[in-house]
Amino acid sequence: MTAEQPPSPCNGLGAVSFVIVVGAVLVVVPATRLLGALLCVVAIIPAIVAFRRTRKDSVINRGRAVAALVLAPVFFVVALGVGVAPRRRLQQACASRRRRWCIA
Predict the structure, then answer these.
(1) Domain membership flag for residue 79
(2) Angle, CA 45 vertex, CA 39 and CA 26 arms, to 5°
(3) What pLDDT digit, counting tens, does each position of 42-71 carry?
(4) Among residues 17, 34, 47, 53, which is most buried (max CB within 10 A)?
């Protein structure tokens, strides 16, 4: 009989944080940018914990933890950009047209 190697432990937090970051693609749509930004902030904590686990233990899924650590701040910056861009366009339109209905 051959001795089977025990399966290496999985890193559930790496997968969870990656799924949260993928859900944070909502930042691209201006109506859901706040939810997407919140998901980005929430995903950073489990991604850090998952990355530290991969360094200490023999846990797999390091790639997902790294991907979540990279994508969460990127999507957060995109969320800030999506929020600022429409406001600037509205301000420029109001300044050039001098309309009464402009709020900006």
Answers:
(1) yes
(2) 15
(3) 888 888 888 888 887 767 778 888 888 888
(4) 17
